[in-house]
Design a protein that fits this description.
Layout: H1 2-29, E1 34-41, E2 47-52, E3 57-63, E4 67-75, E5 82-88, E6 92-99, E7 109-117, E8 121-126, E9 131-134, E10 137-144, E11 149-152, E12 155-162, E13 167-180, E14 185-191, E15 194-198, E16 203-206, E17 208-209, E18 224-229, E19 234-236, E20 238-239, E21 242-247, E22 252-254, E23 259-264, E24 269-271, E25 278-282, E26 287-289, E27 292-300, E28 305-318, E29 323-327, E30 338-342, E31 347-351, E32 357-366, E33 375-377, E34 382-385, E35 390-392, E36 395-406, E37 411-418, E38 422-426
Parallel strand pairs: 2-6, 2-8, 3-7, 3-9, 8-10, 9-11, 10-12, 11-13, 12-13, 13-14, 13-15, 14-16, 16-19, 17-20, 18-21, 19-22, 21-23, 22-24, 23-25, 24-26, 25-27, 26-28, 27-28, 28-29, 28-30, 29-31, 30-37, 31-38, 32-37, 33-38
Antiparallel strand pairs: 1-4, 4-7, 5-6, 32-36, 34-36, 35-36
Length: about 425
């Protein structure tokens, strides 16, 4: 008897659950879409303002059409409580979506699609949604509270912000600024003075070029680009620009630039090309410079420094790594002093034949050093070693000195290292 009662209760419970599921499914099926379509005649260069208080995605596509086609798709439980407005303004058209006052927390999903003439200004403000704009020439401005921004094939000016999404811009000719507080910025194949910044992601510039001329302003182009992120990598390719970049927790990779000043609190720095100089500082990584002109200033608290080609002067400091420097160019031109300091690594420097040099080399080695420290030079220098141990910085040390002048001693080569070797080569 008990088994029959239990079985009966089980069947009733399953039936109730199935009934609830069917009821919920039935309710879901009743949430159909509401579609609103309109067309408007606007002049090239007019402004379209999008005020989406409900939150929602915005898609704008430019074409060779003469009018504006608007399609708004609304779905969700409270879709009937969304009000829409189309207002003609002096500058163009305003589109607004908002909730009825009593439905501030309604459940809806909205999407706004626009097909517009190719020359059109766009301004948007949405409480949360993605923004996609393609093939438009004009001024693009606005913000979204929580979505991605994707622009492609645009011409003009962009000043946009997203509070919590990624920004991707490609195949465009743009000036202005783009900013995200919680995502990545990726700018590909863009011509112009476009600056990207993020508070918590990576920034990537790839194939970005300086604008040769501008139709919108008589002033000269701004040669300086400032980029920052609080917690991501920076990957930059900005030919012809002076880059100032900072990240508090990532790597910095610069492919092409005119001049570079970068810093990171906890990553590596790699610079491929900077003909007007490099200033690089990291608290916990390696620094690598492939090619630089005029000067390199490099400082790391815990890594190696490699300068593969420098046509100018060098200041390189590391607290715990090796340093390699190769000088190129005409030894009779420009400032060519070198100052290298390592607290615990080897130093190798390659200098061009014919350079006028004043050598000042010092190796300090401690009693617990397990290798033989020495100065090896292709240039004629005088080497001396102290006989007695001297206590300094809490350790007993001996010193090896290398001094001498070559071809008049015009440029100073000053090297300091501890428990490391120094190798000076002639190129």
């Amino acid at each position: 008897m008990k088994k029959i009662i239990v079985l009966t209760l089980f069947v009733l419970l399953v039936g109730l659950l199935m009934s609830a599921d069917l009821s919920a499914a039935s309710k879901r099926r009743t949430y159909k879409e509401k579609v609103i379509t309109e067309e408007f005649d606007l002049k090239p260069g007019d402004l379209i303002e999008l005020d989406i208080e409900t939150g929602g995605d915005i898609v704008v596509v430019g074409s060779d059409r003469d009018d504006v086609e608007v399609e708004i798709v609304i779905s969700g439980r409270n879709m009937e409580d969304v009000e829409h407005e189309f207002d003609r303004t002096r500058s163009g058209l305003r589109i607004r979506l908002r909730f009825d006052r009593k439905f501030r927390r309604a459940r809806v999903d909205t999407k706004v699609y626009l097909k517009v003439p190719s020359k059109m200004d766009i301004k948007f403000d949405t409480m949360g949604g993605d923004i996609e704009i393609e093939k438009v020439e004009g001024k693009i401005s606005g913000k979204t509270m929580g979505g991605d921004i994707e622009f492609s094939r645009l011409i003009g000016e962009a000043n946009v912000t997203t509070m919590g999404g990624d920004i991707r811009i490609s195949d465009s000719e743009l000036d202005g600024k783009v900013k995200t507080y919680g995502g990545d910025v990726r700018i590909n194949d863009v011509v112009g003075n476009l600056r990207g910044s993020t508070m918590g992601g990576d920034v990537t510039y790839d194939g970005v070029k300086k604008r040769k001329s501008t139709r919108r302003s008589k002033r000269e182009d701004d040669d300086e680009i400032s980029i920052s992120t609080l917690g991501g990598d920076l990957n930059l390719d900005y030919e012809g620009k002076e880059i100032k970049a900072r990240t508090l927790g990532g790597d910095v990779d610069v492919k092409r630039a005119k001049k570079v000043k970068v810093s990171t609190m906890g990553g590596d720095i790699d610079i491929d090309e900077a003909p007007k100089g490099v200033d690089a500082h990291t608290m916990g990584g390696d620094i690598t410079v492939e090619s630089a002109g005029e000067y390199v200033k490099a400082k790391t608290m815990g890594g190696d420094i490699e300068i593969h080609s420098i046509d100018g002067w060098v200041v390189a400091t590391t607290m715990g790594g090796d340093v390699t420097v190769r000088m190129v160019g005409d030894p009779a031109e420009g400032k060519r002093d070198v100052r290298i300091k390592s607290m615990g690594g080897d130093v190798e420097i390659i200098l061009p034949d014919g350079l006028s040099i004043d050598f000042d080399v010092e190796i300090a080695y401690t009693k617990n050093c397990r290798k033989k420290c020495e100065i090896i030079s292709d240039f004629p220098i005088q080497i001396e070693e102290t006989e007695k141990w001297k206590r300094r910085w809490g350790q007993k040390r001996k010193y090896i000195y290398g001094t001498g002048e070559v071809d008049g001693g015009e440029h100073t080569i000053k090297i300091r290292t501890i428990n490391g070797n120094v190798r000076i080569k002639k190129d």
